[in-house]
Amino acid sequence: MKFIFLDINWVLNKSSANITEIVDESMVKMLKEIVDNTEAEVVLTSEYRSGFMECGLGDIRPLSQPCKYIDSVLKNNDITLYSKTSPSRDRLGKCAEIKRWLREITLDEHEPDIVESFVILNGEFNGNIELANDNILSKGQVIKIEPDEGGLNNKHVEQAIRILNKE
Length: 167
Hints:
Elements: E1 2-6, H1 25-38, E2 41-44, E3 52-54, E4 60-62, H2 65-76, E5 81-84, H3 94-108, E6 117-122, E7 140-144, H4 154-164
Parallel strand pairs: 1-2, 1-6, 2-5, 6-7
Antiparallel strand pairs: 3-4
Helix pairs in contact: 1-4
């Protein structure tokens, strides 16, 4: 399986000032292009994940008003959330959370090779994910989206598709 680890801020928006600016429709369409061209599943890593309840893989339900809005915009574009990462108790950040999620999915599915490839789309990635010397983690890459880039753009879409499809 292929996975997109999705942050919301600076990836699907230019700012997060109010609910109608949480996601930009044009950036959601770019995310849809990645999903359509790779058949990747979307895993939420954003701080908004606390407003979603995971009832099982592929069954993520929004609880808060902002999350209901995010969910509706994604669903209107035929994008469903597959899962979400859990906050790290030891405050190690997104790196540790993504590593733990990848290891858990491998163990839960009893398939060491279930992770074919992944990308981390992140606008505020303040960590260093060790990807090289780890069998699972070597299958992915971080695509850091800088605030001055204005969110997800065509360059990021092309890069994500190449990584996920191993081109």
